[in-house]
Structure to design on (236 residues):
């Protein structure tokens, strides 16, 4: 199978995504990513928050040298930046680091300090959503590490779906995995993970908006704790 031609229309891509979502529901994560690699070639990328490198590792098996897109918000834990650097050094991937249009200092000067405390939605829009939209323009499809068991808002995540906002095919190859499945894969393949995952953090985002989780909380409870906000806006 050859890589998808650029002249495919948005309607064609949407239909392709919806069909693949049905047909690949019972496929393995590697099979889903192999389909993506065969279908889109270098117009396909993986996005990673560097919480772990599971999807990047899986994708590198299907498409060696695959682009792995990382958003450097300027607010990451040092451990997250270290994980990115380690992934770039040891895995067969091409790490692409995206940055916002403004540095943290420039944003503080325009909007005031600690925008993340006063208007976290705007902060996420400026430092995550907009840079990703710019960074994905050259791709037809992107893969994420979303899992259905992470939170109620992700419970219906398709393995292949349509990203209406960006007009791209969105692939979530480990959507059906449990945390135990992730850990098994990490152990079997020696996959890099963020050190914070062994220090009480179940989900790793920007340092000012992330805390350790308490026993019995879901994996996303440590993000924007005390607020109704549960997503940064990248996924809906």
């Amino acid at each position: 199978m050859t890589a998808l031609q650029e002249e495919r229309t948005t309607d064609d891509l949407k239909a392709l995504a919806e069909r693949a979502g049905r047909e690949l529901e019972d496929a393995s994560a590697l099979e889903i990513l192999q389909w993506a690699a065969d279908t889109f070639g270098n117009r396909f990328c993986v996005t990673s928050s560097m919480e772990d490198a599971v999807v990047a590792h899986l994708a590198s098996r299907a498409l060696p040298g695959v682009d792995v897109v990382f958003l450097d918000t300027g607010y990451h834990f040092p451990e997250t930046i270290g994980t990115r650097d380690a992934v770039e050094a040891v895995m067969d991937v091409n790490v692409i680091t995206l940055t916002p249009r403004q540095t943290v200092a420039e944003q503080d000067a325009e909007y005031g300090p600690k925008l993340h405390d006063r208007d976290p939605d705007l902060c996420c829009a400026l430092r995550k959503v907009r840079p990703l939209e710019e960074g994905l323009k050259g791709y037809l499809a992107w893969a994420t590490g979303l899992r259905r068991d992470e939170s109620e808002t992700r419970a219906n995540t398709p393995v292949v779906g349509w990203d209406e906002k960006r007009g791209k095919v969105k692939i979530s190859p480990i959507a059906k995995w449990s945390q135990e499945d992730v850990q098994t894969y990490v152990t079997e393949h020696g996959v890099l993970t963020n050190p914070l995952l062994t220090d009480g953090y179940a989900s790793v985002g920007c340092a000012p908006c992330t805390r350790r989780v308490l026993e019995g909380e879901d994996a996303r409870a440590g993000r924007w704790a005390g607020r109704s906000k549960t997503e940064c806006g990248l996924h809906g």
Q: What stands out?
A: The longest helix spans residues 120-135. The two ends are 31 Å apart (CA to CA).
